[in-house]
Every structure is written in structure tokens, then in C-alpha cells.
Amino acid sequence: MVETPGVIIDARKVTANIQQMQKLAQASGIKLRPHVKTHKIPKLAEQQLDHGAIGITTAKVGEAEVMAEHGIQNIFIAYPLVGEGKIARALKLSRQIELTLAADSLEGAGRISEQAVRQGMSINLRLEIDTGLKRTGVSLDEALPVAKQIAELPGIVLNGIFTFKGAVLEGKSTLDLQAAGLEEGRMMVRLASEMRAAGLTIDDVSVGSTPTALYAAQVEGVTEIRPGTYIFQDRMQERLGVCQAEQWAAAVLVTVVSVSSQGDWVVIDGGSKTFATDVQPNQAPLELKGFGTIIGHPEAVLERMNEEHGMIRWTGPNLPKVGDTLKIVPNHICSTINLHNYVYMDYGDHLERVEVSARGKVQ
Fold first, then answer.
1. Which among 79, 81, 129, 139 is least surrounded, fewest beta carbons within 10 Å?
2. What pTM did the predictor assign?
């Protein structure tokens, strides 16, 4: 029995999604290093590795520590580490597993270098490049001189570059994923060639979120893709054209706790502490309606939320009753999973409650 609100995962769809992305990578002759921030569950990371992934990606040291505790041996922390404590933990972890760190500045790399030298060790590092998202990453114009300086630092082995661009084309959000992915791959391959010509050893050219992985992988010279959301897919990916609704592997089961006397509003027991709100409705270019799709009721819109209540505007037939349950696919599954201690894996003939072991590991 699932107490609501709870996340239900269709295990068969998960397997199909994993296999599809692995086949894509193999067909392109590149490595797949999935980002586990989507699921934060060692069991699912192990399944991705069993199907051919060469390692995993995490955003935080805490996630990497959890995954390593469960036996995962090859991890890339794709986030600039600048805090002394975080760097110390990462270097400790690197004595146990094959670990690669990230930096997007000389200052950040220098902090890693200082601690590595003090501990008499050397750590692999990738330089993050901003290819248009304008988040972290050194600009393309500054990348080569910064890389040269980082390569001279003791205790650092600069062996690759990476980026996260997402559905961005020429610096703007887009639905043209092919153009966005090809632009991403070409930018990175061109930069890697310039760095090699300058005498730097750049083995890894790592790109590709779930939206752009298919196309960035086709650019000769790209060595690795790091998609995450593909394992579950979500409403955002469906709107981008990455998947079909039939591939949605995760949904939130909720209970109707109240129905308005006019029958135009339905209140559920899941609000902003249950569903991610980072992908807002009515925003370009996705223009999503509401915070999720109510399965079987396309006319209903999860329009508002507070902490514990979700308000669904109900304009169609089949008005639910108090006590009925609904399944809702959120706009963004990654942030939604991080709100739950457990998920329920549906194997068809039984449910298994699985701990989200890396949940809340934001440090």
C-alpha cells in the first residue's frame, strides 16, 4: 500500500529508457555517464552501469559519497568545488574510487591544487565551459588561457572539458533540439582542438543533457554524454519532443481531500513539498499548463499549490470524489524526487519501497 503523496516508478519503463539511451551512445561510439541527480538512488545507478554506462555524474560531493558507499567506482562531480571542506571530502573519496573533479576558474582550480599538494596527491580535473546557458563555466574566449594556467598547477591533471547547455541555441531557449545539440557539440570539439594544438592533453569532451544528447553525440570528437532525466522522463521533456507520454516512468500518486461545491476545484494532498515548482507554467518556450499532467484527465490543470495542498481546476467530466486517487506527472521529475524519502518501484506484480539514499545531499 502506498501512502499518498508518493512517487510511483514503473520499473519496466525505466529499463526501456535506460536501454534506449545506452543504444544511442553506443551507436554514436561515445561513452555514457548518466547524471544521477535525477533519481539519487544507488540501485538505479547500478542498473545504468549494468547496461553499459562507464560511470556516473553527480552534482555534489554528498551524492558521490552515497554512491561510492554502494560500490560505484567511477564518478565525475560536475560542479565547481571551492569550499575547503568539500574539497577535503572529495580528495578523501578519490583515494577510494576513480574520481574526477570540476572547476570553471583558475581560482577554483587553485584551491583544489593547494589541498592536493598538501596531501601529496594528484586529482583529475575537467574545465567547465559556458556554451550559452550563462550559468557556471568559463567563456569560450577565456577558456584556452585559463586552461593553460590550470594545467601548470601542481596536484592537478587537466584531462578534459565539459559543458551543460541544455535547450539553448545562440544563447536563447529553443525547441530546436537538433540545432542546439549540434551547436553544443561543435563548440566543444572546436575548443578541444584549439587546446590540443596549444599542447594541452584533452582526452574528454563531455556534453549533452537529456534534450541535446541525441544530437550532440553525433558530432565527431565528442567523447561523452551526461543526460539525467531520460531515466524517468517528465512533462518538460515531452513538451521538448524528447519523449512520448508513454515513456513517462514516474508519477506522483495523490489523494483527493476536498472538492468544491460547484465542482470546479479539486484539492489534493500534495503541494509544493511534493511537486517541484522550478519549471513554472506559462513560460516560454514550453508554455506548460499547470504544474503537472493529471493522467487520464487532460482537461484538468494543477493550477496552484501551497505547501501541503494542490488545487486542480476541473473543467471536464468525471469529477473525482473525496478519497479518490490521481496520478500526476510533474513538470520536472528531478527536483520532485529530491522531495521524497522513498519511491515505490512498480514491477507489475509487486511494489518495492526504495530509499532515495542521496536525497538532500546538497553539500
1. 139
2. 0.96
